[in-house]
Write a structure and sequence with these properties.
Layout (H helix, E strand, L loop, with lengths): L16 H16 L3 E7 L13 E7 L6 H9 L2 E3 L9 E5 L6 E7 L3 H15 L1 H17 L4 H26 L9
Parallel strand pairs: 2-5
Antiparallel strand pairs: 1-2, 3-4, 4-5
Helix pairs in contact: 3-4, 3-5, 4-5
Length: 184
């Protein structure tokens, strides 16, 4: 079954998520070699203590999205399905096939706004427990309200995400935030 039609379920933080990422991250790093400038654990599963949908989000940063052969074939070889019709053209999207740990892989241009935004959002939530708790509460409530409406769930949490990102931007300016080294 496609996770695009699966019900939205937000679960309590699983302390096994970082280990699952490390395993998948190493596999991706090995498969892509120098094609991957960065391989990072992003999204809610990357924030200790944060409730999340139980799928590991991995961001792979590459120099160029096209030609895509340098990453599509190796990632498919790891059991990831390339979603060619993903509407977000700022990235290339993959999801785990059945039988491997639930994961979403977002391939983005290295140094791009979207790549940096995801790292900033993750780092801000990791260092600001109050924002992480605020985000978790919204996600839990919306998962109940939009259980079978993934687009509605995403739209409904946008205002909270952007509110947190505005605070993260201020924090980044005050702290001279920069992304750390790659996670894998």
């Amino acid at each position: 079954m496609s996770d695009r039609t699966d019900p939205i379920v937000v679960v309590a933080y699983d302390p096994g998520w970082p280990g699952t990422f490390r395993t998948l991250g190493r596999q991706i790093r090995t498969a892509l070699g120098a094609t991957a400038r960065r391989v990072d654990h992003v999204g809610s599963t990357a924030v200790p203590g944060l409730d999340a949908k139980p799928a590991i989000d991995i961001q792979v940063s590459v120099t160029e999205l096209e030609p895509s052969g340098a990453f599509v074939r190796p990632l498919e070889g790891l059991g990831l399905e390339f979603i060619a019709d993903n509407p977000d053209r700022s990235k290339r999207f993959f999801r785990a096939r059945p039988g491997i740990p639930a994961a979403h892989v977002h391939v983005r241009p290295w140094g791009s706004f979207d790549e940096q935004l995801n790292l900033l959002f993750r780092d801000y939530l990791r260092t600001h427990r109050d924002a992480a708790e605020e985000y978790a509460a919204v996600k839990r409530e919306l998962a109940l309200r939009f259980r079978d409406d993934r687009p509605g769930y995403v739209r409904a949490k946008e205002s909270t995400v952007w509110s947190i990102l505005r605070r993260a931007h201020d924090w980044a300016q005050e702290s001279a935030w920069a992304p750390g080294s790659s996670d894998a």
